Backbone:
């Protein structure tokens, strides 16, 4: 059984990983750094105002001042902090970028900087790994946060990004279900035609490392019984590892439904840059932030 | 606490209700008829081939042959069965239309027939009522099944249809959350701008009988803590009764996520015609079909 705690253990076994944190001088951010250090997950370079960082750490996180696992790099403002953290990645000093107390737009601007940024030419996309009660496997959802209304070409890259995450989590040949409201092809519903095209692109070798099977409604993607009842044959329907949502609204709703209605556990990462980026928000639990770091460490290739 | 079993009790108290079932000669359909009769929910007129109906009933549902609650009306084929069931509604003999063993398109064609159909000029839309563990109220989701990509004007009607269902279920002033991926207005995201417009239309009296509050992401709609954390003030955010989804994919995914990941109970009805229509499918549980009938009976105005 593949679990998020399993990923955490696996990530901890990867030696010498370094995480660069932009704008780290904030309690919630330092809480997750402390948790990660306690779990021996990685070393950290914290970018922010040095005095501010030391004041908070002295008051609330003294153990972070006394460990070789944490180093501090003084930066004067949020933009500088973001670019310095990104440069730590480009120069090979760190392997995962983590957003601290700064707007997402500021850190992404640094990530996309043409000189020192982490561009690869690929699309950046969000991949979330959910542990849902009653499911033996992790369920990956993409893209619930970055791409608003991806076209077919973008969806191909979103799939490839998520497949690389699934591989890093030990899922050798993930089943990808491009979701629609139906399992038939309806020209009035772009998600259904895109799903069919993605399935054929996979059959023609244009999408690799996975099995794509769609269009599928969510029930036919995750329940073998529902798939059977709809007359869908083969092993893919009902056994999806990766759920490709058609747009950011569907993704965001699925993500939050899993969190608030199904009480699932989650970790998430931005994939497609030279290094994985963790964009946790204040609302995320400490546990969830830790899972995100584990996911990022597993997909980094130091 | 508002529950689906509570709706069932309330619906049973409504006397002399009649349900017209198009193409009733099928085991799964008759199972729900039998359940409803046992619960004293309503009387039924079953439309289908008389001999076939009597054969199945004699073999598996003898009690349906021996009750005054069930009458049979012979029809020669599916299209005739659909139109006869619809005519039973138009003529006032029945109050709720139920789909039996025929394609949805065939029954909807009869519903929309210009001569004897059930048109009102309003949009037909799907309203589902969910009972979710941990929530004291019913959570209504609309429209997860009828309108593919509704525009602003259609969304207004979808809201009004769902509000009438909420009223019938005893929710006096439902809070409607038009969902988006964000709670800010982003011109690049139509669901967010539509949500803001719907909120203002409600303030200007163009949407009535409810409080509309959006755009909201799902977490800010159903969790007061999440809403507070985002700095959303007032009582509406976090306490939504009705979740308006931006498109059929988001709706279908939310519906199925509630069913398969959160194990919620559900009943659903098509609203906007002269009488409520129940379009259950084979995959629905008997319990769910019963809840749908209860929901329909409560919204019918015999």
Residues:
């Amino acid at each position: 059984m593949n679990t998020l705690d399993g990923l955490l253990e696996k990530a901890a076994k990867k030696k010498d990983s370094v995480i660069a944190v932009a704008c780290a001088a904030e309690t919630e951010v330092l809480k997750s750094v402390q948790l990660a250090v306690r779990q021996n997950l990685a070393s950290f370079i914290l970018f922010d105002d040095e005095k501010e960082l030391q004041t908070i750490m002295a008051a609330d996180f003294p153990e972070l001042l006394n460990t070789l696992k944490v180093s501090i790099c003084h930066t004067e403002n949020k933009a500088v902090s973001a670019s310095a953290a990104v440069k730590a990645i480009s120069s090979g000093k760190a392997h995962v970028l983590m957003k601290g107390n700064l707007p997402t737009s500021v850190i992404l601007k640094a990530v996309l900087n043409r000189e020192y940024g982490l561009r690869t030419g690929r699309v950046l996309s969000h991949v979330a790994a959910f542990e849902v009660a009653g499911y033996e496997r992790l369920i990956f959802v993409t893209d619930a946060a970055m791409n608003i209304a991806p076209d077919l070409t973008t969806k191909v890259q979103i799939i490839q990004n998520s497949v690389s995450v699934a591989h890093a989590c030990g899922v050798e040949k993930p089943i990808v279900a491009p979701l629609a409201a139906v399992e038939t092809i309806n020209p009035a519903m772009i998600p259904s035609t895109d799903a069919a095209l993605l399935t054929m692109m996979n059959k023609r070798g244009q999408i690799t490392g996975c099995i794509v099977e769609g269009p599928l409604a969510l029930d036919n993607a995750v329940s073998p019984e529902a798939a059977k009842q709809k007359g869908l044959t083969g092993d893919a329907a009902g056994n999806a590892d990766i759920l490709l949502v058609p747009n950011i609204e569907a993704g965001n709703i699925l993500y939050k439904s899993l969190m608030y209605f199904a009480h699932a556990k989650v970790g998430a990462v931005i994939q497609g840059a030279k290094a994985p980026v963790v964009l946790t928000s204040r609302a995320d639990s400490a546990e969830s932030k830790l899972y995100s770091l584990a996911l990022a460490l597993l997909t980094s290739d130091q």
